[in-house]
Amino acid sequence: MAAALRQNAAPHSLVRAPSPRMTRRVEPFRSAEEAWFWTMAALVARREGARYTAGLGNVERPCEPDDVVKCLDTLYRRRRVDLVHARILRIWGERGSAPNAAYVAEKSDWKLWREALDRLEWPLRVKGIVG
Description:
- The structure is a single chain.
- By secondary structure, the chain is mainly alpha-helical.
- It has one domain.
- It has 6 helices and no strands.
């Protein structure tokens, strides 16, 4: 019986070990802010000519950058955020840092930044983008 099973088994050369991409664990973001900075970095890189290929980064993420943008767009269409929120997210996202409420010049931006990210947090959690 064992000999018959061995005869029907695939040759050793056809058996493949799982690729590293298949065994890596998908890691959601810790917050909407972290997801937003990652998204903006990817969008800036794309604008500058980089080509994005899923699964090649150091950490496997549960989404594409466009998925985060779509969540923001849905909030905008439902009038949960305004264009000014999106503008502040874009400006500070491209800078790679959040506005600082301690600076008078940034206090208004910080308020809009927090409002937008607080409203973006739930849709990203529902989709599994934020853990």
